[in-house]
Amino acid sequence: GRMLHDGGYSADGTTCLERAGALAPRNGEYWYNLGLAGFRAGLLARAVEALERSAELQPGNAAAWGALGLAQQQSGALDQSEASLRKALDLNPRLLSAAHNLAVTLRKLDRAEDALAIIDKAMQSGLSAPVTKTLRAHLLGELGRFDEAVQSYQALLAEPPGSIDAQETLARLLPQLGRGDEAMSAYDDALQRAPTKCDRGFRPLHPQH
Predict the structure, then answer these.
(1) 21 contact partners, CB below 8 Å, separation of at least 6
(2) Residue among 160, 110, 163 nearest 139 (CA)
(3) What Å distances lie between residue 86 and 43, 68, 118, 142, 159, CA to CA?
(4) What CA–CA distance (Å, rounded) separates 184 from 196?
(5) What pTM value is reported for the model?
(6) Distances in Å between the alpha carbon of 18 and those of 3, 12, 51, 63, 87?
(7) What value, to the nearest 5°, has the Cα angle with vertex 3 and ends 48 and 12?
(8) What 3-state DSSP class applies to 17?
């Protein structure tokens, strides 16, 4: 089952892992692998159920709690996601994927300041993925810290290969700083990078109140 899952055959992997789980119902690793296979197959309810069982059987396994938190986030159970991801970080503060996912959950809960604090702490610990830097720039913009957001987007876009998400958001942010000419240039760049992925009109960002 794990081999099928890792090879991209998530549905087949889920079926095999379910059979394995029936043979060893108290094996937390089986439930963990079943949850990952279910997640990859888009079976979120099944993934959450399996990962809850895994975390119950392996309460000290940070990865199990982290995976559970992500599955809960994707299924819309945001309060539970926050609790699971915080548990993962309590067990392993250097599980940086859990830190990123916790920030995403907090942002979905309209808690941008808390999300930014999590991101900043994780980046001090070595988290440097472009997707995390983009998230941080988004949060700065949502908090009304526009100059810092622009600097963050520009720094991110200076790194290869450059994020279309960051480029387009920068284009929407610049007009609020009275930098319309730069905004048009940034948007043109976004269209050149991925013409089918950009909105055809500007949607200004608004800070949280």
Answers:
(1) 27, 30, 31, 34, 50
(2) 110
(3) 24, 11, 10, 23, 31
(4) 17
(5) 0.74
(6) 14, 10, 13, 20, 26
(7) 60
(8) helix
Question: Is residue 171 within 8 Å of 187, Cβ to Cβ?
Answer: yes
pLDDT digits (tens, 9 = 90+) for 158-194: 766 555 566 666 666 666 666 656 655 654 555 455 4
**Do the Cβ atoms of 12 and 4 come closer than 8 Å?**
yes
Q: Copy the structure tokens of residue 111.
A: 């808690």
88-131 tens-digit pLDDT? 999 999 999 999 999 999 999 999 999 999 999 999 999 888 88
Give the CA distances from residue 204 to residues 141, 161, 171, in Å, rounded to whole numbers and listed in that order: 10, 25, 9
